UniProtKB/TrEMBL annotation:
Membrane topology: Multi-pass membrane protein
Sequence ranges of Low complexity compositional bias: 1-13
Organism: Demequina mangrovi
Record-linked InterPro entries: MetI-like (IPR000515), MetI-like_sf (IPR035906), UgpAE/MalFG_permease (IPR050809)
Protein's name in the database: Carbohydrate ABC transporter membrane protein 1, CUT1 family
Compartments where located: Cell membrane
Presence of keyword Ribonucleoprotein: no
Region (Disordered): 1-22
Family: Belongs to the binding-protein-dependent transport system permease family.
Transmembrane stretches, start-end: 31-53, 89-114, 126-149, 180-204, 225-248, 286-308
A Gene Ontology cellular-component term: plasma membrane
Swiss-Prot/TrEMBL GO biological process terms: transmembrane transport
Amino acid sequence: MTTTMTAPASSPARVEQPPRRRRRRTRLPHLLLIPAVGTLLIGLGYPVTWQILNSFKEYGLAQQFGQPAEYVGFANYIALFTDGMFWTIALRSVAFMAATAAVTMVIGIAFALLMKVIPTWSRIVLQVAMLLAWAMPIVAQMTVANWLIDDRNGVLNHVLSLIPGVDLIGHDWLIDPLSFFGVALVIITWASVPFVAFSVYAGLTQVSEEVLEAGQLDGASAFQMLRLIIMPIIRPVLVILILLQLIWDLRVFAQIQLLQDFGAAGERYDLLGTYIYGLGIGQGQFGAAAAAAMVVMILTLAVSWGYVRRLLKEDEES
């Protein structure tokens, strides 16, 4: 009788892991950031600090002639927040910001999609035209706009009066607040659309043709491909564009001020930018103007906080 002896299974050889090397953190990126951070602190730190301090002081014309500013605590903010006109102007500014940004984004995306499908020669003509519009100085834009809407010799009134039954000769587009801000919306949108169109078009060029062909093979319509494929891919571009448009349109000043100089005046035509300018330069209430400027800065931070939080979250996940 024979017995079969089974050798014990040999344990697998233990593979020694090489020691992990600690990632060397170089200080060079931080050192390279010092000039940019220093310039930012010098260029923005002093003005912002000056604004914050003056918002808590009674700083008017007397202080411009050497009289010391009196510390009044939150009196400027209390007076601002209890002023019904301020809230009216703030709500008007937010509504104007939302309307202008929305119209700009829709038209800009439409132009970007148009540049994607038209022939090369027509795309170049369109791009040059938009680039010229974007590069035109604000004063030149407003001069052309004033020439177009002038109540006596304006081209717009003359062209519209050619329609049977329409007589707009002598009509002032800046006398009514609704038409005033309508004109401002058209001017600001006209100058902002090229930036949105060029940015979205650059994003569209990064959409893979293979992805679009796969969508076509699956039977997706053009609208479905735009909504379900193209827009999600270029969403990061759209998010930062809408954020920039909201910030720029909230702080708009030059176009509104120049339109007021052309004909309209008064609080009915003010946005936050011209309201702060009127408080400080017009009325000499620099403390109240500084407080209003701080409110606008907080509104701007609130608008951009969602995007900043998203960037921080993506940085943590990566």
